[in-house]
Amino acid sequence: MSEQIEQSSSTINQDINILQKTQNVQLNSSWVYDCIFTNIKNGLIDKNKYNQERLQIDNNQEGNKQNYSNVYQVLATTRKGKLFQFDKCEDGSIQNQKTIYTSPINEEFYRLYEDYDTIDYQRRYLLVSGSRKKVHVFKLQNNDRQSNNQQNQDIQEDFSLYHKFEYIPAPERNVYSLSGYKKHSNKILSSGQSNITLYDLQHQKIQRRIKNNIENACIQYNRDYNFFFTCGTSKEIIAYEDRQNKQIFSLKGHESNVLRMANLKNNNQFLLASGSHDKSIILWDIKYQHNNKIIQNHHTNAIFGIDYDHINQIVYSTGWDKSIKALDIKSFKVIGNIQRAQQDNIITCRYNSQTQELMSSSRDGSIQFYKANIA
């Protein structure tokens, strides 16, 4: 039986300083739809090449020698088809902010530029989806800089020359979400208007397509990758068996569109967190297929971003009320709250467990970083 938990208004209406603001990065765009952390360890950055060439540049600039051994790269998608990148160094500084790709103008569309909604990565592939009914795939192992004899050739070009291909999951259907299959690096899922598509990156072809009659706002594999979840305008979460494409169960409890999901673990219990237009977060027990916690009065508007700190068992959420909340799933209490985290509606949040940092993206064109101060 589900349990409803209402947070007191006195707790929600005051800032709780478990999250400390560190940096705000303003991008040359509006509406930062999505952003991800990447780092040297996952193979997206060639550590030796990066250090060697960065230090070579710094050696030519007196007093500017730095250690780039722990560089985190941030990639972000925005309106008008822009893909941004910048580096966050060990000392906290922001380096090398640049636009690495802009969608070409297409006069056939009422929007001249494509809006990039979702970004993910799959080992050597960078995946971007958007409003042009396409998924763009950037093959990262081919991103070596071309030879250039100009003296002013900038190191920033190292990671911008991506080899790109794209596929169309379904004609005339926007693509809202992506999910990579970590056990098979060449397999991804995409979801959008009335369709779910499984794509083979290696052979660049669609393997399977599932049709349904809803707008699928988010798609998410479970922790064991034997089935996946979709959510959207049906107000429910639908689970599909991965190999047979069969619907195996559905989770009902939200009163409006379900916008985001995240896997989490509470002790030995595997849960799924979902956020909705109804302003609530529901924690679902996947094994027994029911909602065991409904968090109400947590946000005052739609919840668009959810991520999870697996070490400290904290759910972070963001939404249209411009606030960021940190929810301890052991006590089901709000332990972190920033009322006006950014100037406009917050679209997504991402947590980096290695650095204990949270970043959020907003309609105001910025990405805000926070340090989680957890005892």
Automatic annotation (TrEMBL):
SMART domains: WD40. Transmembrane segments: none annotated. WD repeats lie at residues 251-287. It holds the Pfam family WD40. Keywords: Repeat, WD repeat. This is WD domain, G-beta repeat protein. It comes from Tetrahymena thermophila (strain SB210). The lineage of its organism: Eukaryota, Sar, Alveolata, Ciliophora, Intramacronucleata.
